[in-house]
């Protein structure tokens, strides 16, 4: 039966207005659910709740009568009169929120200009392998990292010699990327890809959880046979201080187990076992458990 909403027939030839197809019915039900959740969040005075759409039913019949005799709680006919009347208001509210967040991001992103212009800097950071120190700002470092905050607090630690902090685990490019992220809260994809392992360790060491989470999500998305062992090794180094890193390690172990035949006979795996015997034991045990369950 043709749908009165999405039918391509001329208006005068369309079926009765109370006949809609399953797709339009589910779309209407989802829109009503979104509006109701939005109104509920407004009533609670919560501006941070995000509406979620209800899932569509695959076995729903192809047409639905709006004047059904037994309306359910989730059907459009059970909602108050004109349930979609507030949909434009909800969409406008989302647009306003989006614009406000965009303006806020633009406003806060100006901080990175201080780093690029090196204006009013009062501390230097350098790598362990030499190279020119990079100027920075004490206040920003202290705000972004609890470790830097402690290091720069004269009541907690001795002041850095020559107003310089050394980060021995990073090279110059990695240090620049770390500082760029601390100032801007963002990093170019190519820099994240190139320095993700070093930045993960630095984020863990200097307690920058937002950067740590960003690196972990990137490693999960890019996980494959070429980097699974490195990801597993990195996740093991930081999993003690981050619950999300524990999830990353579990994901990496499962991937290695699933692709054991491809990885186990490679030279990279031999080097991995030699340098990480405890991880090799964990992978072997997980592989045996998986094989037992598959029988």
TrEMBL record:
Q: Where is this region: Disordered?
A: 45-81
SMART domains in UniProt: BTB
Q: Which residues form the BTB domain?
A: 121-191
Q: In which pathway does it act?
A: Protein modification; protein ubiquitination
SUPFAM superfamilies, per the entry: POZ domain
InterPro entries, per database record: At1g01640-like, BTB/POZ_dom, SKP1/BTB/POZ_sf
Q: What PROSITE patterns does the entry give?
A: BTB
Q: This protein's superkingdom?
A: Eukaryota
User: Bias category Low complexity: which stretches?
Assistant: 45-57, 68-78
Q: What does this protein do?
A: May act as a substrate-specific adapter of an E3 ubiquitin-protein ligase complex (CUL3-RBX1-BTB) which mediates the ubiquitination and subsequent proteasomal degradation of target proteins.
Entry protein name: BTB domain-containing protein
Organism of this sequence = Linum trigynum
């Amino acid at each position: 039966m043709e749908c009165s909403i999405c039918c391509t027939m001329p208006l005068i030839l369309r079926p009765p207005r109370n006949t809609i197809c399953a797709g339009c019915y589910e779309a209407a039900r989802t829109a009503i659910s979104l509006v109701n959740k939005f109104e509920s969040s407004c009533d609670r005075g919560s501006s941070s709740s995000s509406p979620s759409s209800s899932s569509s039913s695959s076995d729903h019949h192809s047409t639905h009568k709006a004047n059904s005799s037994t309306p359910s709680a989730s059907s459009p006919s059970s909602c108050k009169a004109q349930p979609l009347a507030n949909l434009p208001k909800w969409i406008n509210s989302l647009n306003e929120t989006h614009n406000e967040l965009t303006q806020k991001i633009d406003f806060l992103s100006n901080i990175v200009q201080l780093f690029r212009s090196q204006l009013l800097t009062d501390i230097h950071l350098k790598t362990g392998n030499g190279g020119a120190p990079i100027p920075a700002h004490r206040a920003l470092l202290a705000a972004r990292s609890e470790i830097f905050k402690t290091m720069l607090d004269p009541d907690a630690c001795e002041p850095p010699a020559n107003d310089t902090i050394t980060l021995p685990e990073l090279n110059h490019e990695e240090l620049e990327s770390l500082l760029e992220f601390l100032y801007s809260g963002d990093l170019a994809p190519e820099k994240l890809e190139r320095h993700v392992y070093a930045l993960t360790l630095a984020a863990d060491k200097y307690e920058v959880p937002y950067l740590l989470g960003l690196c972990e999500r990137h490693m999960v998305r890019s996980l494959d046979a070429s980097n699974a062992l490195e990801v597993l090794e990195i996740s093991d180094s930081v999993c003690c201080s981050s619950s999300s890193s524990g999830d990353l390690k579990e994901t990496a172990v499962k991937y290695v187990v699933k692709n054991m035949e491809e990885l186990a006979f490679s030279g990279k795996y031999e080097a991995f076992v030699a340098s990480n015997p405890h991880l090799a034991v964990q992978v072997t045990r997980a592989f045996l458990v998986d094989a037992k369950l598959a029988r």
